[in-house]
């Protein structure tokens, strides 16, 4: 079995999570690692993925969308100035 190395592509800044996502009781680290490496998840359209790829270079906000093992969607958002990354449920956006 091969293992991929996830290389960070940008700073995450401070990391916070909303009450809703914390109530899921899941480990958020795998989602943060994927986001940090530029794996935007499976819940974004092609335009949002392209916007993220551009935002890596022009300093705009980065958005990822993942599904938990229970099927719940979560968002991971890093602000344009890279000072803050927030993990939240879509309804908390």
Secondary-structure blueprint of this entry?
Elements: E1 14-17, H1 19-22, H2 29-36, H3 46-58, E2 62-67, E3 73-78, E4 84-88
Parallel strand pairs: 1-4
Antiparallel strand pairs: 2-3, 3-4
Give the key terms.
four-stranded mixed beta sheet, 93 residues, alpha+beta
Sum this structure up briefly.
This protein is α+β, with helices and mostly antiparallel strands. It is built from 3 helices and 4 strands.
What do these coordinates show?
With 93 residues, the chain is of the alpha+beta class. It has a domain at 28-92. Helices cover 27% and strands 23% of the residues. It has three helices and four strands. It has helices at 19-22, 29-36, 46-58; strands spanning 14-17, 62-67, 73-78, 84-88. A four-stranded mixed sheet has the order 1-4-3-2. A hairpin with a 5-residue loop joins β2 (62-67) and β3. The longest helix has 13 residues, at 46-58. The protein is globular. The N and C termini lie far apart (37 Å).
Share of residues in strands: 15-25%
Oligomer: single chain
Q: State the distance separating the first and last CA atoms.
A: 37 Å
- H-E string: EHHHEEE
Whole-number mean pLDDT? 93
Secondary structure tally: strands: 4
- What is the CA-atom radius of gyration, in angstroms? 13 Å
Biggest sheet layout? 4 strands, mixed
């Amino acid at each position: 079995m091969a293992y991929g190395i996830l290389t960070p592509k940008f700073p995450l800044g401070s990391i916070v999570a909303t009450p809703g996502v914390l109530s899921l009781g899941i480990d958020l680290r795998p989602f943060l690692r994927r986001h940090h490496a530029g794996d935007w998840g499976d819940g974004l359209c092609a335009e949002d993925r392209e916007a993220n790829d551009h935002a890596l270079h022009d300093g705009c906000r980065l958005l990822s969308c993942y599904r938990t093992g229970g099927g719940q969607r979560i968002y991971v958002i890093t602000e344009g100035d890279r000072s803050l990354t927030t993990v939240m449920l879509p309804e908390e956006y």
